[in-house]
């Protein structure tokens, strides 16, 4: 079983300098171009048998473009949504720093942000969707997962069976692609954060 993990294209929040998270910003024009290049590359090199996507616009549109290219089933999975950043969603970083300043030593991992989730809850959600995918979708040869940078990093921690206290963060560029393979008792990383499709003219 292969897992093709894909981040969405550039969103409007990237240009506005705001906290995104659950704020539902659409893709920019560049983001759509990035997604189209990704879909052409994936369809030619790693066509999935099914696509799972976050329902947030920036991921859903990226997934729909991929579906249009490969023609497979598309399924929304709410657990693939980005970190629930509660009251910070959509706020500028400057406004958020004034209204909701972090505690002196940071927010403890078990304490949720107001109207949102804690880091521990976020990690557990990633573990839950990872287990769902490898069990409910195991009859597919290749499953594409379209999600967000933060969730993808947590998903990779789950895949690598890293402890809850792990400080590793896995960066993913706009429409970055990770390819993982589960072979019996082995979990293989084929590649991480592939972006070569963006350099194709």
From TrEMBL:
InterPro entries: His_Pase_superF_clade-1, His_PPase_superfam, PGM_Phosphatase
Alphabetical list of CDD domains matching this protein: HP_PGM_like (cd07067)
A GO MF label: phosphatase activity
Active site: 8 (tele-phosphohistidine intermediate), 82 (proton donor/acceptor)
Sequence positions that bind substrate: 58
Gene3D superfamilies noted in UniProt: Phosphoglycerate mutase-like (3.40.50.1240)
Pfam family, one: His_Phos_1
PANTHER family cross-referenced by the UniProt entry: BROAD-SPECIFICITY PHOSPHATASE YOR283W-RELATED (PTHR48100)
Name by which UniProt lists this protein: Histidine phosphatase family protein
UniProt source species: Psychrobacillus lasiicapitis
